[in-house]
Prior knowledge:
mainly alpha, 0% strand
Amino acid sequence: MTFGVLLYFFKASAVLFHTGWFLESLVTQTIVIHIIRTSKVPFIESRPSRFLLFTSLFIIAVGFALPLSPLAGPLGFVVPPASFILSLLGIVVGYIFLAQAVKTWYVKKYGH
Length: 112
Protein backbone atom coordinates (compact mmCIF):
# COMPACT_ATOMS: atom_id res chain seq x y z
CA MET A 1 0.00 0.00 0.00
CA THR A 2 2.75 2.43 0.98
CA PHE A 3 4.75 1.68 -2.17
CA GLY A 4 1.69 2.33 -4.33
CA VAL A 5 0.82 5.58 -2.58
CA LEU A 6 4.39 6.84 -2.80
CA LEU A 7 4.97 5.81 -6.40
CA TYR A 8 1.61 6.43 -8.05
CA PHE A 9 -0.01 9.22 -6.06
CA PHE A 10 3.06 11.21 -5.01
CA LYS A 11 5.40 10.25 -7.86
CA ALA A 12 8.01 10.17 -5.10
CA SER A 13 11.65 10.84 -5.75
CA ALA A 14 14.14 8.39 -4.25
CA VAL A 15 14.63 10.53 -1.13
CA LEU A 16 10.90 11.05 -0.55
CA PHE A 17 10.35 7.32 -1.06
CA HIS A 18 13.13 6.59 1.44
CA THR A 19 11.64 9.02 3.97
CA GLY A 20 8.09 7.79 3.50
CA TRP A 21 9.04 4.14 3.78
CA PHE A 22 11.08 4.86 6.91
CA LEU A 23 8.21 6.69 8.60
CA GLU A 24 5.60 4.09 7.66
CA SER A 25 7.68 1.14 8.79
CA LEU A 26 8.72 2.85 12.03
CA VAL A 27 5.13 3.69 12.94
CA THR A 28 3.64 0.31 12.02
CA GLN A 29 6.41 -1.68 13.72
CA THR A 30 6.01 0.39 16.86
CA ILE A 31 2.22 0.14 16.92
CA VAL A 32 2.10 -3.58 16.17
CA ILE A 33 3.77 -4.16 19.55
CA HIS A 34 0.56 -2.93 21.16
CA ILE A 35 -1.55 -5.23 19.01
CA ILE A 36 0.37 -8.47 19.58
CA ARG A 37 1.12 -7.95 23.28
CA THR A 38 -2.40 -9.03 24.30
CA SER A 39 -5.15 -11.27 22.99
CA LYS A 40 -7.63 -8.52 23.88
CA VAL A 41 -8.37 -5.31 22.02
CA PRO A 42 -5.44 -2.99 22.74
CA PHE A 43 -6.14 0.33 24.47
CA ILE A 44 -9.79 -0.65 25.01
CA GLU A 45 -9.75 -4.00 26.81
CA SER A 46 -6.07 -3.95 27.73
CA ARG A 47 -4.05 -0.83 28.41
CA PRO A 48 -0.28 -0.78 27.96
CA SER A 49 2.01 0.24 30.76
CA ARG A 50 2.86 3.93 30.92
CA PHE A 51 6.46 3.09 30.06
CA LEU A 52 5.49 1.18 26.90
CA LEU A 53 3.11 3.93 25.85
CA PHE A 54 5.71 6.65 26.50
CA THR A 55 8.49 4.85 24.66
CA SER A 56 6.20 4.13 21.69
CA LEU A 57 5.17 7.77 21.41
CA PHE A 58 8.78 8.89 21.88
CA ILE A 59 10.04 6.60 19.11
CA ILE A 60 7.38 7.83 16.69
CA ALA A 61 8.05 11.48 17.62
CA VAL A 62 11.79 11.06 17.06
CA GLY A 63 11.10 9.38 13.71
CA PHE A 64 8.95 12.29 12.55
CA ALA A 65 11.49 14.81 13.85
CA LEU A 66 14.40 13.32 11.90
CA PRO A 67 13.35 14.68 8.47
CA LEU A 68 13.12 18.13 10.06
CA SER A 69 16.48 17.91 11.80
CA PRO A 70 20.06 18.58 10.66
CA LEU A 71 20.42 14.79 10.35
CA ALA A 72 17.94 14.71 7.47
CA GLY A 73 20.57 15.21 4.78
CA PRO A 74 23.07 12.61 6.02
CA LEU A 75 20.22 10.12 6.53
CA GLY A 76 18.80 10.77 3.06
CA PHE A 77 15.50 12.22 4.30
CA VAL A 78 13.37 15.11 3.08
CA VAL A 79 10.39 16.76 4.70
CA PRO A 80 7.37 14.84 3.39
CA PRO A 81 4.36 16.81 2.17
CA ALA A 82 1.44 17.16 4.59
CA SER A 83 -0.74 15.17 2.19
CA PHE A 84 1.62 12.23 2.57
CA ILE A 85 1.33 12.43 6.36
CA LEU A 86 -2.46 12.23 5.99
CA SER A 87 -2.08 9.28 3.64
CA LEU A 88 0.28 7.65 6.12
CA LEU A 89 -2.31 8.08 8.85
CA GLY A 90 -4.87 6.25 6.70
CA ILE A 91 -2.41 3.45 5.89
CA VAL A 92 -1.52 3.02 9.57
CA VAL A 93 -5.17 2.94 10.66
CA GLY A 94 -5.88 0.30 8.01
CA TYR A 95 -2.83 -1.66 9.15
CA ILE A 96 -4.00 -1.54 12.77
CA PHE A 97 -7.45 -2.87 11.93
CA LEU A 98 -6.06 -5.59 9.65
CA ALA A 99 -3.47 -6.70 12.23
CA GLN A 100 -6.14 -6.78 14.95
CA ALA A 101 -8.48 -8.80 12.72
CA VAL A 102 -5.78 -11.35 11.88
CA LYS A 103 -4.79 -11.60 15.55
CA THR A 104 -8.44 -12.12 16.58
CA TRP A 105 -8.83 -14.87 13.97
CA TYR A 106 -5.59 -16.52 15.11
CA VAL A 107 -6.57 -16.44 18.79
CA LYS A 108 -10.00 -17.92 18.01
CA LYS A 109 -8.46 -20.67 15.88
CA TYR A 110 -5.38 -21.56 17.93
CA GLY A 111 -5.90 -19.99 21.36
CA HIS A 112 -3.37 -17.75 23.04
